[in-house]
TrEMBL record:
Full protein name: Radical SAM domain-containing protein
């Protein structure tokens, strides 16, 4: 009996003690300038994670492409994927704690057999990761069905998460091989989301969809076309990545430094028709990430916390203090028990939460303005990868424990230290920032994988033709 009570006490703790310890470690590693009141790393989680070297190949030819030139010479192999994902996730669980969001990323995930894709997701979940599959979105409903539902018609997952990349930097999509304008991809974006709506209707599988766009001088002015009707298109996150000089040099086609992050953010704000607050919740270094958490009421977007409202600042601080580190994707009953414990030990959270809710209703124009309107959670993100030419020297100095005297390299070092996107190297007993993975480790890693997983001759030929054709078309 005592053992049962002890177990109950342990599993209903609002935050796992190991999670607390890992968050505190992460906080202490952050550079001073990002340890702000709004910083989420170390106060709500340890940051995001991603896989590498598990399926490097892709059947598109994007410009830019962050993968090294040799990535497409590596065969996609289900067994290799599962075993590498297991090693990386097990390591992350050990060194970063029992819970985190993690991206299943290569390469193109849908080149995996759907059953292998599903197994990789299950392995990630078994290590406490909340996985998201990163894809170009060019697969069929049949693929999605085989991924989400087993041979006996039983769903494998109650909920799935995908991030789909759609933009004019990509070459190879069926029915839109070389898109010229972002608006030309509008139907493809919607059709992708519709597959998940159908999956939910037919098999009860819930979903979270993010939309990714690489931003270049050629398409920065078309962000409004990407965000056309975004509140009703099925996505709950739009993420913009200003292009960087990383990966395959043959795919660098423009001066990606012609515009600033401010310009990208302005374009998103113009499209949404309102200011997008990103100072209230910071994820790592603001030069890497801007995140505006909010929701649409009808066609108007509202921020979860307003930056000009001191009460919202207090509500944000209360969230971090009392709910920071809570695993909100836990099974509903377990989550309810954990939240009950939070309330019993910190009853003030109820007052703060209700006051916050009342303010949200008022901001939206009162109850009468909300009733009958659709409320859609929507987050806007800008993630700015860094150029390999900056990352390589910055990392080399960091490895020697030296801070650069060059202001640009120093800024890169600070950003790497505050990185919110980690990749695991169990063989070296360490995690590295994704920028470092792509700039420093990917090229050598893919050369090793090329001999470990060579392409069959037929595919080598197809791959070469595919890439040459795309490059000849100016991709
Ligand atoms: S260091 Fe690189 S990978 Fe890490 S958050 Fe910054 S831009 Fe992203």
């Amino acid at each position: 009996m005592l053992d049962v009570l002890r177990y109950f006490e342990r599993v209903t703790r609002p935050v796992d003690p190991l999670t607390k310890e890992m968050m505190s470690n992460r906080w202490s590693e952050l550079p001073d300038k990002v340890r702000t009141r709004s910083q989420a790393i170390g106060r709500h989680g340890v940051g995001c994670e991603g896989t590498h070297g598990v399926f490097p190949r892709c059947n598109f030819a994007c410009s830019p492409c962050y993968h090294s030139a040799s990535a497409n010479r590596v065969r996609t192999d289900g067994e290799h994927t599962i075993s590498e994902v297991a090693k990386q996730m097990s390591f992350l669980e050990r060194v970063r704690g029992p819970r985190a969001h993690a991206q299943l990323i290569g390469g193109e995930v849908s080149l995996l057999e759907p059953e292998d894709h599903a197994r990789a997701i299950q392995v990630m979940r078994s290590h406490g990761r909340e996985p998201m599959s990163m894809t170009h979105g060019d697969f069929s409903y049949e693929y999605l069905l085989r991924f989400a539902v087993d041979e006996e018609g039983k769903r494998r997952f109650k909920r799935v998460s995908f991030a789909a990349h759609f933009d004019t930097t990509m070459v190879g999509r069926k029915g839109m091989r070389v898109p010229e304008r972002e608006i030309d991809l509008y139907e493809h974006r919607r059709e992708f989301a519709k597959m998940f709506q159908r999956l939910k209707k037919e098999h009860g599988v819930r979903y979270f969809l993010a939309h990714n766009m690489t931003v270049t001088p050629s398409n920065v002015g078309q962000i409004k076309d990407v965000l056309k009707d975004c509140q009703s298109s099925g996505y709950n996150m739009f993420s913009f990545q200003p292009a960087a000089f990383i990966g395959n040099e043959k795919r660098w086609k423009e001066d990606y430094r012609e515009f600033s992050g401010d310009e990208v953010w302005r374009q998103i704000e113009n499209a949404i028709g309102t200011h997008l607050t990103y100072s209230m919740v910071q994820v790592g270094d603001v030069r890497c990430n801007r995140t505006a958490w909010g929701y649409f009421v009808g066609d108007r977007w509202y921020s979860v916390f307003d930056e000009d409202d001191p009460d919202d600042e207090l509500a944000r601080d209360a969230f971090y203090s009392y709910l920071g580190g809570v695993h909100f994707n836990a099974p509903p009953l377990l989550l309810a028990l954990r939240l009950t414990r939070v309330i019993l030990t910190n009853p003030t959270i109820v007052r703060v939460g209700l006051a916050w809710l009342v303010r949200r209703v008022k901001k939206a124009g009162g109850l009468s303005s909300i009733v009958g309107k659709k409320i859609v959670p929507m987050t806007f993100v800008m993630h700015s990868f860094m150029d390999a030419s900056q990352v390589m020297p910055a990392w080399e100095l960091l490895e020697r424990g030296v801070w650069s005297e060059d202001p640009e390299i120093l800024a890169t070092q600070e950003r790497l230290k505050a990185c919110s996107y980690a990749m695991a190297h169990p063989e070296m007993n360490r995690v590295v920032p994704a920028c470092v993975q792509h700039s420093v480790f990917d090229p050598q890693e893919n050369v090793v994988l090329e001999s470990l997983l060579p392409l069959p001759k037929r595919v080598v030929k197809t791959g070469v033709l595919h890439t040459d054709e795309a490059e000849a078309r100016g991709a």
